[in-house]
């Protein structure tokens, strides 16, 4: 005899899982009521390589997606941004890179304001960004993609190519291959390689493992660590929250455009609230 492990709810009945999801959501709302208390402890712009403080930003006039987010990055760190779908993780990284205007709050790099600067000015100042999608030019070869990454310093191409290919050997081995012919994981290597061509001190990665097989996801995490060991500080938005928290120094849990939790990767992985609200199987939505 078989047992129905997932019985359909009767008329008027709320499915058990929906009830649990609603409970998780209610608990999140309580957490968010107290969110922001830690932000008072954030130091001044001089204390950080990158400081985004109390950012308010959004796409549509009058609608804020970020409702006072704070993020700090110190030299040498890998910082993760995790949280449910629609929490504003990608929006935070786009606001930092000047792709959407900041409505309120401060943004500094090595103590100087970079609020309102366009993306290319940030690249000149040593910030690299890898978007989540459409992050390579598919009709160009790997080499041409990397040349695009070095467009502000074409003379440095050969030297940077050597360094970047040292991190991602695929880029040298297949330099004449069209980026469009590569797998998703390989494209991600091209996209990261391109961002590294300008020798950035800060690398912003938006969901670099999205859509990749587990093996490629692991490879991306390993490469991020290797890139970090060359002296590049990293901020990465990730959907594979557990694995990302394992490799990062610190993490931010965003929810509804606000900081819900902040701590070392190890502490967040052990925090019962973070596990229940953001890492569990019911916590995806
Ligand atoms: N270009 C856009 N125009 C208008 N609204 C947008 C745009 N991009 C994102 N949004 C909205 O902003 C909110 C936050 O989106 P964002 O992409 O930052 O979320 P996220 O935390 O990165 O989640 P996900 O993991 O689903 O990508 C969502 O409600 C989304 O619909």
3D structure, described in words:
GO terms for molecular function: ATP binding; ATP hydrolysis activity; branched-chain amino acid transmembrane transporter activity. InterPro entries: AAA+_ATPase, ABC_transporter-like_ATP-bd, ABC_transporter-like_CS, BCAA_Transport_ATP-bd_LivF, P-loop_NTPase. Residues 1-20 are annotated as: Disordered. This is ABC transporter ATP-binding protein. The chain is of the alpha/beta class and 285 residues long. It has a single domain (16-279), classed as Rossmann fold (3-Layer(aba) Sandwich). It contains eleven helices and ten strands. It has helices at residues 16-33, 89-96, 119-124, 142-149, 157-167, 169-173, 184-196, 214-229, 241-247, 265-270, 272-279; strands at 50-57, 66-73, 78-82, 102-109, 112-113, 127-130, 202-206, 233-237, 250-255, 258-264. Strands 6-7-8-3-9-10 form a six-stranded mixed β-sheet, with helices on both faces. A four-stranded antiparallel β-sheet has the order 2-1-4-5. The protein starts with 15 loop residues before the first helix and ends in a 6-residue tail after the last helix. The model is unreliable at 1-6 (pLDDT under 50). Residues 59-60, 65, 83, 85-91, 239 line the site of adenosine-5'-triphosphate.
């Amino acid at each position: 005899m078989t047992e129905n492990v997932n019985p359909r709810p009767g008329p008027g009945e709320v499915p058990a899982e929906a009830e649990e999801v609603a409970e998780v959501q209610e608990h999140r709302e309580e957490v968010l009521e107290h969110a922001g208390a830690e932000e008072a402890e954030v130091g001044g712009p001089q204390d950080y390589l990158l400081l985004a403080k109390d950012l308010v930003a959004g796409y549509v006039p009058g609608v804020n997606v970020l409702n006072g987010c704070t993020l700090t990055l110190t030299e040498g760190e890998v910082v993760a941004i995790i949280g449910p779908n629609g929490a504003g993780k990608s929006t935070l990284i786009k606001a930092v890179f000047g792709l959407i205007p900041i409505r309120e709050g401060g943004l500094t790099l090595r103590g100087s304001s970079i609020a309102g600067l366009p993306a290319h000015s940030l690249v000149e100042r040593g910030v690299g960004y890898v978007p989540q999608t459409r992050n390579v030019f598919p009709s160009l070869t790997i080499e041409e993609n990397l040349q695009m990454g070095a467009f502000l310093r074409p003379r440095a191409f050969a030297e940077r190519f050597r360094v970047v290919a040292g991190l991602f050997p695929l880029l040298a081995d297949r330099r004449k291959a069209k980026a469009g012919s590569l797998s998703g994981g390989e494209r991600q290597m091209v996209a990261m390689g391109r961002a590294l061509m300008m020798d950035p001190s800060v690398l912003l990665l938006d969901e670099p493992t999205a859509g990749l097989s587990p093996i490629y996801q692991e490879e991306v995490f390993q490469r991020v660590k290797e890139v970090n060991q060359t002296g590049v500080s990293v901020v990465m938005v990730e959907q594979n929250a557990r694995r990302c928290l394992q490799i990062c120094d610190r993490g931010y849990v965003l929810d509804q455009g606000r900081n819900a939790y902040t701590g070392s990767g190890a502490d967040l992985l052990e925090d019962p609230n973070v596990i229940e609200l953001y890492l569990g199987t019911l916590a995806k939505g």
